[in-house]
Design a protein that fits this description.
With 355 residues, the protein is of the alpha/beta class. The strands form 3 sheets. Strands 3-4-7-8-9-10-12-13 form an 8-stranded parallel β-barrel, surrounded by 5 helices. A 3-stranded antiparallel beta sheet has the order 5-6-11, with no helix packed on it. The protein is globular, with a radius of gyration of 19 Å.
């Protein structure tokens, strides 16, 4: 396992350099458990619409393993599933540095990475490795910054990863690619889901069914939530929503000196607003789509709050920067205890009980 000393050393490096060092170490197997821990049966869940089978509901969010380099090592830390990406058709360097900022006083992170990745060619060569997948591995696809037809980029991404990933996510909610969140507007979203739907139906016929998710922003008002829910429900191949990406909001409670940096805010300050948006989507959808809750999770209590708000599974990333991957085991233990304390024998019994 990655030791506290190792984590302390990484935290002394500039954030992006620390991330690169972490990926390099994981690729060599440094600090990676020999085998994946066995999960308690109470944490097992089958997502009702997508059919994804998870030994536990704790997933690694996109952004950590952008190029599908280390999904196998991360599964060994006990994640129930791992999402790789965001990947774009063409390689792109992303935005200018510095573009990643720790806010330790707030247990938060601001990033304006800009979909930096090696492109679909590299990504597919990595994710097609089967290895010992103890849980599903997803591919999060996006659009290039300079693309003239961004929906075409999503179609290209779907075609490339379909036969290699266990599920796909259409990421239309990053705040760091100018104009990308405009795809959440009703007309643009209808066009995106129509064209991606045509592609999905063809790929399903040729290669078999794959769950498809849509990742949305936390910065949505009630009208936008209602319109996105209606549009998503009208897309027959779409199986769920991932709620949510980072926020462009800056709560008054932020203390760290880097709080005014541009980009998407994640970590502890995102927990409450992202859970509120998740709850609103859950009420709109009434179980007709799967929901994966993301934003601010750093404990079993946080994960449980998302589940009670309607999430069938959750994802985290920012908390790993402060607590390391051993946090995953802690969250699962706390979640198991919370379920038992409330008399739930299975995770699915707890979903949506806080609505």
């Amino acid at each position: 396992m990655i030791t506290q000393l190792g984590l302390s050393l990484l935290q002394r490096l500039p954030p992006e350099q620390a991330h690169q060092a972490t990926i390099a170490a994981l690729k060599t197997g440094v600090g990676v458990p020999v085998r994946t821990p066995k999960d308690d049966p109470s944490l097992t869940i089958k997502l009702p619409v997508s059919g994804l089978n998870l030994s536990n509901p704790i997933g690694l969010a996109a952004g950590f393993d952008k190029n599908a380099d280390v999904f196998l090592p991360m599964l060994k830390f006990g994640f129930g599933f791992v999402e790789c990406g965001t990947v774009t058709p063409k390689p792109q360097p992303g935005n200018d540095r510095p573009r990643l900022f720790r806010l330790p006083a707030d247990r938060a992170v601001i990033n304006r990475m800009g979909f930096n990745n090696h492109g679909l060619g590299y990504f597919v060569r990595r994710i097609e490795r089967k290895g010992d997948r103890s849980g599903p591995v997803g591919a999060n696809v996006g659009a290039n910054k300079t693309s003239e037809d961004r929906t075409a980029d999503y179609v290209t991404g779907m075609k490339a990863v379909w036969d290699h990933a266990d599920y796909l996510t259409l990421n239309i909610s990053s705040p760091n690619t100018p104009g990308l969140r405009g795809l959440q507007d009703k007309g643009a979203l209808e066009d995106l889901l129509r064209r991606c739907g045509e592609t999905a139906l063809t790929l399903e016929h040729d290669y078999g069914r794959k769950p498809v998710f849509l990742k949305v922003a936390p910065d949505l008002d009630d009208k936008a939530i209602e319109e996105i829910a209606e549009t998503a429900l009208a897309a027959p191949y779409l199986h769920g929503l991932i709620v949510s990406n980072t926020t462009i909001a800056r709560p008054d409670t932020l203390k760290d000196e880097d709080k005014t940096e541009a980009g998407g805010l994640s970590g502890a300050p995102l927990m409450t607003p992202s859970t509120n948006v998740l709850r609103a989507f859950s009420k709109q959808l009434e179980g007709r789509l799967d929901l994966i809750g993301v934003g601010g999770i750093a404990s079993g209590a946080d994960a449980y709050a998302k589940i009670k708000a309607g999430a069938h599974a959750v994802q985290l990333y920012s908390a790993l920067i402060y607590d390391g991957p051993n946090l995953v085991a802690q969250i699962k233990e706390e979640l198991e205890a919370a379920l038992a304390a409330d008399g739930f024998k299975t995770l699915s019994e707890a979903v949506g009980t806080g609505l």
